[in-house]
Amino acid sequence: MREENVGIVARRRVRVATLMAVGLSAVAFGACGSSDDEASTGTAAQGSTSSGSAEASAAALEGKRIAVVSCAGAQNPWCGAFNEDLTHGLEEGGARVTVLEDPQDPAVRAQHFNQALSLRPDLIVFTALDSDSSVPLFRRAEAAGIPVVNYNQRLEGEAAELVTASVIWSDEELGQALARNLVGGLEAAGYREANLLGITGTASLPQTRDLVRGFESVMARYPQYRTISIEDSNYDPNRAAELASQIFAQARARGGIQGVWANVDYIAAAAAGAAEQAGLRPGTRSGDLVVAAGACASAGVNAIRAGTQVGTGTKTPRQTAEAVTETVDRVLAGEDVEKVTVLAPDQVTADNLDEFVELCSY
């Protein structure tokens, strides 16, 4: 595999890191080959971008047309907040932005990408559903001379080669933080053993697979806490509530469910609501259902404050949008950019929640 430029962004920062030449396989999203308590792979960037970058960015965005092919905010609150924050950031610099949304539908996303190409934009911002199906789309963009900035989803193979840049999160590290929060809550509740329910976002997405892998890497050290079912909610809170209700009922004969973990706070909140309807009590007292999530949202902020959720992690729309905006600025300014920029999440608990309320409220 040829070497890639990978930027590792410091925690709670979204400034693009200094270029580092390392093998893409070597970063392995923070956890592989290292302790789950370590920060993301490599050394976190400590400076800001060059002093002239802001001026260059403003000039680069002015009058440019940018198409955003994204997930639908009507279904997914994270996507809605990201689309809004990204549009605001690009338009503030003078760009004209067209957003095309879909509910994680590969066929519709491909149609929207082709529609974006027909607009002849200066750049396309895109979130891939998988690498293989994205290759024909990226080839068309390359043939048309239109750069593509991918965000949020890890790309592999030819797809990773074809895009100009990717801005992603260390989802494996996010899964590790989720596991640590959940274990802490189970221990606080006095559980010597527990049955767990996992409710993920779209299971086929690389970000979901990476989060689950990170979660399981930590939970392997706690065999007394066993996930008996992992359900795919497709990031739909209503679907998450339905799935949780079904599993709570089915698990009664097997000792019940003592813990729930989810990709994101609003999915965890839906499961917690279903638990209350089933007569379970979310919390960390003896006999409570312990709930933890991977990525923060307003529902999680409220639940952590209320004591009904033990923790979450940062993978916020605002941080992602800021990092994507900066990458787009630099591409349009003709600057060299990192092939892959990895954003490092923070673990959030009741003890440090106040530091993250603003970022996590959407």
From TrEMBL:
The keyword Cell membrane does not apply. PROSITE patterns: PROKAR_LIPOPROTEIN (PS51257). Its main location: other. Pfam families: Peripla_BP_4. Residues 69-335 form the Periplasmic binding protein domain. Keywords: Signal. Residues 1-30 form the signal peptide. InterPro entries: Peripla_BP_I, SBP_2_dom. Belongs to the bacterial solute-binding protein 2 family. This is Sugar ABC transporter substrate-binding protein.
